[in-house]
Amino acid sequence: MYYVDPHIHMVSRTTDDYETLAKMGCVAMSEPAFWAGYDRGSVDGFRDYFRQLTETEPKRAAQFGIQHFTWLCINAKEAEDVQLSREVIAMIPEFLDCPNVLGIGEIGLNKNTKNEATVFLEHLELAVRTNQQILIHTPHLEDKFQGTRMILDMLVGDSRIDPSRVLVDHVEEHTIDLVLERGFWAGMTLYPISKCTPQRAADMIEKYGPERLMANSAGDWGPSKPTAIPDLILELRRRGHSEAAIGEVVYDNPVKFFSQSRRFDFIRPEQRNVRDQIELS
Amino acid sequence: MTRSAREVLEQEFLQVRAKTLEIAAFFDRLHAAEVSDIDHSQLDLLEQGCRILSDDKHDKAARVQLLFSRAYEADWREKFSL
Asked: In chain A, which residue's Cα lies nearest the Cα of B8?
C-alpha cells in the first residue's frame, strides 16, 4: 500500500531509513522544522537548517522515489528566546518560495509559557500575511491538554485563520475531539513510548472516523520508529478494515490536506517514472 | 468498530494480561524496595489510574489522560496579558 508520512524529521535519520521507507510504500513525506536536541545560537543556524530542509533532504528522498516537502518555523522549545524567534520569523520569507515548502510549522507550545504563546501568535501573523498553511505541535505528557486548549484558543480567536488549512498534530484520546469539533485537521503520532501506539490510533480512527484524521511517525533523533505507519496499516488490516478505508487515513487525507498549498506539486505514484526522478536528483 | 467484543477479548487477551502483570510487578518492586522519600502525588496518580481501569464507566483512555494532565485555565490570556 502506498502511504504518505505527514510528519517525520529526516534530518535526524539515515539514508538507509529513506530506502526502508520507500520499500514499505512511502511515496511522500513532510518534514516540519523542529528542535535539534540543542538550542541554536543564532539566526544563521536556522538559515543553514532551512537550507538543509529545502535543498538537501529533497535530494536524499528523491534517490528512492520519495517526494519530500517541508514546513518552516522556530520550534516551541527555542521560542522561549523571543528576540531570536523574531529574527528567525523575519528570515523565514527568504525560503517560502522554495518548491517543497508547504507552510509554517511545527509551531506550538512546549511548557505553555507566555513567551511561547507570544512567538506562536507572531508565527500565526506571518502565516496569515503570506497565506501559508499551518502545522502545529502540541505539548508532551502532562502539558498536552492545557497546551492544546491554549493553542485552540489562539487559533479560534483569529477569524482570519481557516481551520481546514491547519493541522494540529500529536493528538491523543483527551485532545482529538477538541481539535476535530473545531474544524481542524488532526494528526496522531505513533511513538514507541509516549504519544500514541498503533493500537490506540486504530481505536481513535474507529471512534471518530477517518475524516480530517492522519497518522504520522514523527521519526526523529529520539525514541521513535520511522516505519510506524506500516505498523498502523497492519493493525487496521488485522481488525478487518478495508484497504480503501486504511488508504483514506494514510494516503488520501495527507494528499487532500497538502493540496491546499500551492507548493504541493505531488505526482501520484502510478504517474511517476522513478528512474527519471532519481536521475534528476 | 469492525470487531465484536468477543473478538477483541480473544485477540488481545494475552497482550493485556502481560501489561496487567507489568503493573502488578511494578507495585511489588515499589513495596519491596528500601524505604525512602517518594513523590506521593505520583503514586496517588498511578493508584487513581488503576481505579479508572476497573470502574464501570467508559472512555477510560481519555480519563486516564486527563488524570495525568495539568488543568486548563480559561483566563490564561488575561494572566499573560496577551
From this structure: A239
